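User: Show me a protein chain along with its predicted structure.
Assistant: Here is one chain, sequence first, then structure tokens.
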Amino acid sequence: MVSLEQETLKIDWGTIWVSSVADICGSHSSAVLVLTRKENPSFMKTKVAQIGKSGGNFELVEREIPEPGPRQVRVKVEACGVCHSDVFVKDGLWPGIQYPRVPGHEIAGRIDALGSDVTQWKREQRVGVGWHGGHCFVCDRCRRGDFAMCVNRKVTGIDFDGGYADYMIVGAEAVAAVPDELPPEEVGPFMCAGVTVYNALRNSGARGGDVVAVLGIGGLGHFGVQYARKMGFVTVAMGRGADTQALAKKLGAHHYFDTNSGDTVANLQKLGGARIILATAPNAKAISALVEGLSPDGKLLIPAAPDEPLIIPMAPLIAGRTSVAGWYSGTAKDSQDTLEFSGLSDVHPMG
């Protein structure tokens, strides 16, 4: 017998299906409708938006509500963001994708079922699921505690079905707790763009008072500017056109450099050079040109991959002891840290 935690009703999940109070009678009702599975098979169905084949269109189809296996949870999705990376599924750009596949890795919802051996989560708990969809725990990287670099890591919405659905199944290790103050529609972007730039900056080696420049004020960059300011860095926003300046200032930038006019490298060097340049605009030419804007021991940090290769002059790297590095998103715990910092520091996604 399983308690629904509504009144004192207890049911046997092997024989009957219970719909939620809110779905059946409205949020203020205390009634619960109980129906047998055999008589009401439609109550076992859920809708998903799937891609049936590489290059195919989205299909809205009905499936049975999935059941979590060992060490898995089922999440009732409340909101799911749309990310450019979903094109990997749409166009079959990720090796090994099995179709049909449900995309979506910016997920906010509530746990509504627990698989066996799940002890750290509870039903109805608010959670988010991001790009990092799980790890194996047994490879050398996992044994060192570096779960983000697991050689068998999974990607939500690519290796298994994601959040373009009413319900989804995910490993318990890939779930992040959501603070009460964050609404579902804000949680989604934090689970991808948010954790990527927050995690990059907090692990960059920059200290409060250092100059941190953010190239691009889009999905990643608008978070980067906010986080850089909230972390105590001298924050420089760099974008194309003077009309972006107002947004950059609203996000918290101390300085704005228009890359379409003026010498961006010279402007950075007037500030002593950037300890970190966070390149969120995937433009190889623009990124490559910024190396000479770094301070000694500075780092050009790239979380968004351009299609073309970078052409980097080596002389300034050697002379300034500078470096170029990439950055991977992060684990569910990193996402949870991002959510907590964002709620504490008043960081918000913007459309």
